[in-house]
TrEMBL record:
It comes from the Bacteria. This is TadE-like domain-containing protein. Pfam families: TadE. Residues 2-39 form the TadE-like domain. It comes from Terrabacter aerolatus. The lineage of its organism: Bacteria, Bacillati, Actinomycetota, Actinomycetes, Micrococcales.
């Protein structure tokens, strides 16, 4: 009888832990992919175009997160609030023409599906990863 009363609470807690773990792993993959792509953009950037940076971000997020190119934003500026689009075209080079204080910001956005129903979470959760590196090699 006691187990029948506590089982729903126990299963809710167990499923909540599983959902949180999956979302945490996906968020970690996004953050790592964004950091890798921003580093890729600034190191030896004379050969790196915006399409290369986007491809690096998409590849780095696999297999936990499947992104589209529209989920990747590459901006450049001294601060994230002052940063502007660094990729007007796919052949643009992110750090070309940058100031000594400019950073490259790669932001990845992903709407993760919540696999197990947990009250209050909804069906999707927006995850955002951001990587920042200084344009030192331009």
């Amino acid at each position: 009888m006691e187990f029948a009363l506590l089982a729903p609470v126990l299963f809710l807690l167990l499923f909540g832990i599983i959902v949180f773990g999956l979302l945490f792993a996906q968020n970690l993959a996004l953050s790592n992919a964004a950091r890798q792509a921003s580093r890729y953009a600034v190191v030896n950037n004379s050969n790196r175009t915006c399409s290369d940076v986007v491809s690096q971000a998409l590849d780095s997020a696999q297999p936990l997160v499947t992104l589209t190119a529209g989920a990747v934003t590459v901006t450049r500026g001294a601060t994230s609030s002052a940063a502007t689009n660094a990729c007007g075209t796919s052949t643009a080079k992110p750090c070309t023409g940058s100031q000594p204080t400019d950073n490259i910001y790669v932001t990845l956005t992903y709407d993760a599906n919540v696999l197990l129903p947990v009250p209050g979470m909804g069906n999707t959760k927006r995850l955002i990863g951001q990587g920042v590196f200084r344009c030192e090699f331009s």
